[in-house]
Amino acid sequence: MPPAESSPPVAAAPTPDAIAAHSRTSGSQVDAAAPRPVGRRRWPWIVGLILIAAAAFFIVPWVRDVLTSVSTDDAYVNGHVTQVAPRVAGQVTRVLVDDNNFVHKGDLLVELDPEPYQVQVNIAQSVVDVAQADLTAAQATVRGQEGFTRSLRFSLEHAIEDVDDKIATLKLRAATLEAKRATLTKAQADFERNKPLVAKGAVSQQQIDAYMEAQLVAQADVQQALQGVYQIRVALGLPSKPEKGDDLTEVPADLNQTFSSVREAQAKLMQAAAALGVVESFNFTPQQLIDDFYKRDPKKNIDTIYDQLLKDAPAVKQAEANLLRAQANLDDAQLNLRYTKVYAEIDGVITRRNVNPGNNVVADQSLMAIRSVTEIWIDANFKETQIGTLRIGQPATIDVDMYGSHHQFAGRISGFTMGTGSTLALLPPQNATGNFVKVVQRLPVRIDLTDYDPQKLPLFIGLSVTPSVRIHEEPTGPNAGRFLQEPIPVPMEPQPAAATTTAKPERKP
After folding, report:
1. What angle do CA 374, 375, 381 make, to 5 degrees?
2. Are 113 and 91 contacting, i.e. CB atoms less than 8 angstroms apart?
3. Does the pLDDT value for residue 454 go beyond 80?
4. Is residue 127 a contact partner of residue 326, using CB atoms and an 8 Å limit?
5. Given phi > 0 = left and psi -120 to 50 = alpha, else beta, which region is 245?
6. Three-class SS state of 454
7. CA distances (Å), 117 to each of 108, 109, 335, 364, 431, in order?
8. DSSP state of 357
9. Rounded-to-integer distance, Cα 238 and Cα 232, Å
10. Helix or strand or coil: residue 493?
């Protein structure tokens, strides 16, 4: 048998102290042989740089905005609100819109029952027809009065001509009287010359009788002519014999203006002309009356004068006034009929509708409201310590809470309110009562939007916004760089002369 293999010697178990010593020796050898990792030394610096870059990215713009702009978080969107109300009372028959409906200017919103107002229109139209007929009748009456006045004017002229004719007749008869007297003188001379010749027989008795007859006839003719002169003088309103002198043809120079028949014709003409609105002085002579009448037309066209008198006649004017009043009532009735349809006055969105078909409404009762979607602005309440650097025209950036950081709106300052929010409150503070406490006041500043498109990004009234005004940029637009706007030029209506008074200097004691 082969010899048996001997088993290896069994090593003794290491003691704890030996294990610890071995660990220290092997660890020191490993640390000396393997280098320490580089990343463990650099990552704190990288994190620090990232934090510094992030801080610079966010803090530097904030610092720049703080130094170059003024902002406030006390701001909101504002806009015009139009109350929709009927102008007449009535029963609602139709309501064509509802809350949140978008409407355009001129859209029909509410319709009232038009039948009662149509009845009023019909009544007013009948009154207009009657007034029109009265005007036609008045014009016809004035036309007749015009013809009567024309005849009276001719009568006046005829009366003047008649007086002139009588004066001419007086002169004619006076001349005839003188001729008759001359014939009488000749007859007397013939008789006296031939009378002594009868005794001598040179002239027969028959011839002497003929001369005497001729003398008597001549005397009768003189008396006849004289009586004719007396007659025409009496017809002219004169004494038969002149008071002074023997001139039977002596008459006043203005007899054709003062004669009774002429004055009578003048009075009748003035009476008839008064119906045409022509009022003349009674001190006028007939010729002055006629001359003044012709002055009504530069060309002295009688037809033009009467046409104008027809238009200005009191009866025609009164009928025209009645027609105008009736027409005004008709227009008012037609206007009320049109008011039964209530239309939108602006573009906007319907809110607060509180009317339904069948409701009885009165004039000026609020039916609904229309909020404009285009006439939108920002009311920003800046602190009084911030107002000093703000001016009209400065650009602004508006952050709207509704859109967050997705969109910023652009705007510009357009005006400052003349009073802080506390003074414009319903109950303003009374500092004179002794309860005054100084606090920072806020002044409302209006900012108009310059890039607002309601179809893309609409803004709703009352939304909170944060405007930032860039105070170092040049103001632009109207009233740029000012606190107050320029006065709006308002056309002044001309004042009547009677309304203007001259201020008297104050009398000092």
Report:
1. 130
2. yes
3. yes
4. yes
5. left
6. coil
7. 18, 19, 9, 17, 56
8. T
9. 9
10. coil
pLDDT at 504 over 60: no
Distances, alpha carbon 149 to alpha carbons 99, 266, 274, in Å: 72, 11, 10
Say how far apart CA 97 and CA 349 lie, in whole Å: 10
33 band by pLDDT with thresholds 50, 70 and 90: very low
- Residue 221 tokens read as 């003719």
Confidence of residue 272 (pLDDT cuts 50, 70, 90): confident
User: Which residues have CB under 8 Å from 191's CB, separation 6+?
Assistant: 208, 211, 212, 214, 215
Helix (H, G, I), strand (E, B) or coil at 84: strand
d(CA 479, CA 485) in angstroms, rounded, equals: 6
**DSSP 8-state secondary structure symbol assigned to residue 494:** P
Q: How far is the C-alpha of 416 from the C-alpha of 420, rounded, in Å? A: 10
Question: Which of the two residues, 231 and 498, has the higher pLDDT score?
Answer: 231
pTM of the predicted protein model? 0.63
- Band of pLDDT at residue 323, cut at 50, 70 and 90: very high
pLDDT reading at 302 higher than 90:
no
Tokens of 395: 């650009």
Distances (CA, A) of 483 to 70, 413, 417, 422, 486: 16, 10, 10, 20, 10
According to DSSP, the residues that pair with 94 across neighbouring strands are 111
Closest CA to 414 of 445, 457, 370: 445
Closest CA to 97 of 115, 110, 84, 78: 110
Indicate left, alpha or beta for 340 from its phi (over 0: left) and psi (-120 to 50: alpha).
Answer: alpha
Residue 413 has pLDDT above 50, yes or no: yes
**Residue 474, φ and ψ in degrees, nearest 5:** -70, 130
Using CA atoms, how far apart are residues 497 and 490, in angstroms rounded to an integer? 21
pLDDT tens across 433-442, in order?
Answer: 666 677 888 9
Compute CA distances 76 → 348, 440, 445, 450, whole Å.
Answer: 19, 19, 11, 16
Which residue in this structure is represented by tokens 């009476």? 271
Taking residue 167's Cβ as centre, other Cβ atoms within 10 Å add up to: 20
Query: Taking the chain, what is the end-to-end CA distance rounded to the nearest angstrom?
Result: 168
**Residue whose token pair is 């904030």:** 62
H or E element, residue 442:
strand 442-449
User: Which pLDDT score is estimated for 61?
Assistant: 61
- pLDDT of residue 338 exceeding 90: yes
Mean pLDDT of all residues belonging to the chain: 83
pLDDT at 8: 42
Strands of the 341-343 sheet, one edge to the other: 341-343, 108-112, 90-95, 360-361
